[in-house]
Design brief:
Layout: H1 8-19, E1 22-25, H2 32-39, H3 46-66, E2 70-73, H4 79-85, E3 95-98, H5 101-110, H6 121-127, E4 138-141, H7 146-157
Parallel strand pairs: 1-2, 3-4
Helix pairs in contact: 1-7
Length: about 160
């Protein structure tokens, strides 16, 4: 989890490759209306997010039922969103990719082909509720290279 531009997809792919897991890309679960809204620079509201989060939760349950290990790349900015995705699923761990607004803004300016415009970064940080100790998160600072971040997560998953 983390704000847009924190490296969720990159880190999820790296972790999945290292562990031979699958990747569930949260952005691919957005309905077209959500993508268009974000492309236009309009932040999503909770009513936009609930069906999207429930669709991801269904995919998580399907993987768990099949005994498939997966990494989910999803912003999950608020506790209520994480409650839908994690809930009482004992086999699901939360990884928080934490970074400064300045670092993430720089990354968003440099990336190409993503529907989320840098103008929405402030709304992401306003929405962000950092996970508390009761959520038992793995919190990783994102300043280093992706392979170091993946390694740090793998060490904490052991």
């Amino acid at each position: 989890m983390g704000v847009s531009g924190s490296g969720k997809t990159t880190i999820a792919r790296g972790l999945a490759a290292a562990e031979h897991w699958t990747v569930l890309e949260g952005d691919s679960f957005h309905p077209p209306a959500n993508v268009e809204k974000m492309k236009s620079g309009t932040p999503l509201i909770d009513e936009d997010r609930w069906p999207w989060l429930r669709a991801i939760a269904v995919a998580i349950d399907a993987d768990l039922a099949r005994g498939v290990n997966a990494v989910v790349a999803c912003s999950a900015l608020r506790r209520a969103y994480r409650d839908i995705l994690i809930g009482d699923r004992r086999n699901v761990r939360l990884v928080y990719l934490k970074g400064s607004r300045e670092l993430i803004a720089e990354r968003m300016q440099a990336r190409q082909g993503h529907f989320m415009p840098p103008a929405l970064l402030d709304s992401q940080f306003r929405t962000l509720e950092e996970p508390g100790p009761d959520e038992d998160p793995i919190t990783v600072e994102i300043g280093g290279p992706p392979d170091e971040i993946v390694h740090a997560i793998m060490e904490q998953l052991q």
